Structure formats: C-alpha cells, structure tokens
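WARN retry 2 of 3 for item q-0093 after timeout on previous attempt; input resubmitted unchanged.
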Amino acid sequence: MGKKQTHTFGFELSSMKGLSGVYVFRNVNGEIEYVGTCKDTDETKENWRSRIRSHNSYNGKKLTNEVTFMDVFIPDQSINNRGLLILEYLLIWYLRPPKNLPEGLRTHWRYFYWSWSEETVKAVAEDKYNLIITTSIEKYLRSFRIKRIHREYELDGSFRKYGSIREVGFIDEPCLNNSVCTCLHCIARERHNAIFNND
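OK item q-0093 returned
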C-alpha cells in the first residue's frame, strides 16, 4: 500500500476536511499577501487541496515560495456560500492584500468599494447582505477563531508531501498590543491604518 498524501505544496490540509473558512497567506515576516475562501462540505471532494493547487498553477500565482504559513478564519459552519464570500470581501476591504489587487488600490472589490468608510461598509453589509456588525470591524474580525497552518519542508528543502494526519489547532497567539507586536490582528490593524491614512 502506497503512502497517503497529506500535504499540498507543504501545507497539511487533510485535517481541514469538512471545515469551511477564509484563509490569509502570510510571508516569513508575517506580512499579509492574499485572502481567499474555501467552502468544504462535499465529502467526495478534496476542496482545500484543489483551492491551494489553483494558486500555484498560473502566471501571477498567489502561492509563491515566500508564503510560509496561512491563517484560516473559521466561522460558524452553518454559514452559506454567500456569507463566506461576504466575510472574505470584508477582510479584503479591511486589509487590501497586494495579491488581491491586480489593478491597484483605486479599483473596487465586488461587495465593498475601497472609498467607503467603515460606517458605510457596515451599513451596506447589514442592508444588502444581512450581516450585522455591532462593534468596529476590527473587533468583529477578532471574534473569529483562527487555525494556523505552517508550510513544512523535507530535509532537501522540497515541500513535504507525505506525513501523518494531525489536528490543526486554533492559535492562541499572545498580543502585545504595541508597535512591535506581529500577531495577525496587530499586523492587520497596522496595514489597515496605513492604507486609510494614505487615501
């Protein structure tokens, strides 16, 4: 019996089976590069593997060698496809990841225009998409539990392909809440503030 593949381009994805979420590619410095989504409810398909493979299969690919881990926002799993997309585009509006912006910051992104204020985004989210955010968007995004998946390598430097299936735990990353903190939320806030202060 042959080995069972558990990794895709170094990411151990087998344990993500049956979980839907919004993922954030980050580089070795923790900087945010790309936001995407995966709806995984079909037991007959390898949705996470297919999604990650798609980012490595064309020119302008999102999954470069610089991506070293991804953080996956895990919503309530009763969420439908549209709800998952709303969360994805809310993160894109908040973060403006460079690889989600092929035409630059002056374009808009599907649900929320770049020029909209936070209050406008929240009002449109409620009026058009039934997403009610009673706090700041930053606090709303902080409310989600996050799984972190690091890329893994073989001794020769190649991406790991085989291994054991193991649970990917929710991260419990301490937040220093200052200018040197590199947790996801501080990095996200810093990027968001830098973008909006320069608009």
